[in-house]
Amino acid sequence: MKNLSYLLLLSVLLYACKHDSGSAKKVEAVPTIKVSADAVMKAAKDYLQQSVSNPIVSEIEGLLRVQGVGETYILESGAVLTGRIDDDNREDAIATCRYEKTGEEVTKTHLILLNKDSLQVVTAVTLDMEMMSIANGTIQVLRSTLPPDDPGIVPCPVCVDTLYFRLENGEFVEI
Asked: So where are the chain's domains?
């Protein structure tokens, strides 16, 4: 009889655990609103067209080229990194362009795009770094420690620093 009482008590507990009475609130993850590479490319194109004088735009198979007087931006759709940069539940993006200015070295310009009511470029950062990931508002980048004119093989493990940045008040800040 004692065993029967234990079985009955165990059955009642299992039933209560399986069927939530509603007294405990369930916490559900807020879904992230995703952003497509096409949307990033369009926002980048709009921004770059306004950034250069007399823009000439060409697009072909995921490659965007915006040329102005004495400067050119080249962006590939594969050079788009997405993740959450700010505190909302919308996915943001970084688009890395190759930037060429007459008489200067080729550099990289990283367009930081936040997804508010629409995807907007909030700042452009010219740094010779590789954007690696975006997680919890932190942007991980790799920077070569070799001088730009060094013919060394990059990336070698001892020739690269890992740095972390955040976007604070429209500024790209190292943390």
From this structure: 30-174
